[in-house]
Amino acid sequence: xxDEPEIMACGIFAADHIALTYTTHPSPPPDIASRIxxxxxxxxxxxxxxGRTLFNSPVACLKSAAVIDGVLQLQLAKTxxxxxxxxxxxDRECFRLNSPAAITPALGNSIxxxxxxTAYLGVRSKAVAAYPHWAHLFGxxxxxxxxxxxxxxxxxxxxxxxxxxxLGINADYLTAPPQVLALMRDxxxxxxxxxxxxxxxxxxxxxxEALNVQEHDTILAVPMAATAMDAPPRTPVxxxxxDMARHLTGHR
Length: 252
What we know:
The protein has helices at 30-49, 81-90, 92-98, 153-167, 236-249; strands spanning 6-13, 18-23, 58-68, 71-80, 108-115, 118-124, 135-136, 138-141, 179-185, 192-199, 216-223. It is an alpha+beta fold.
């Protein structure tokens, strides 16, 4: 398996050049649903023993993606975090061999924050379900929107909510509304991730209780021109995002 993310769509897309449509995601047959429930219970018990908590909630899975006439077209369907974690994150190989139709890749929605020639990543805590102790972008799995008629605004609403929860910052910290760099598929998690880029007015500094320690241990300031890091490792998506932003901004 390549350690490079699959670029599913590439280009600079402002929110008004992203179109969302919605469809249904088929319910798994009873035997598969029972297996998902059993494995979820096992994983939640294990997480509790380790001092972690897994929450189930409605999330969006990506059904299809295409760029048509300069517009990024995303088709979403409703699923839940439980199904995503079991079928895609934890037991994907088992489901690939026995029930591939049940694999449910939830859509990640994250942002690369930069200021000048510096990019900022969060070092993920041991409490997270994927990539603990790796450096990654800020954001998370896209929550299922409360309304499905607001276009791509629901993506930005989720992104700003994640920034507030993880860093204590909001849209006022950015010089302009974020733009999408690419839609990528992580090679390890097989999860699609919509990657935005936002430029900060000033260097990112998080004080006191602003940093959500359930999500991140610390923040890294990474030179845009850096091609590698000794430790902690960067996730493939975050490394690709920095490389894209580096070429766009001329920090070679």
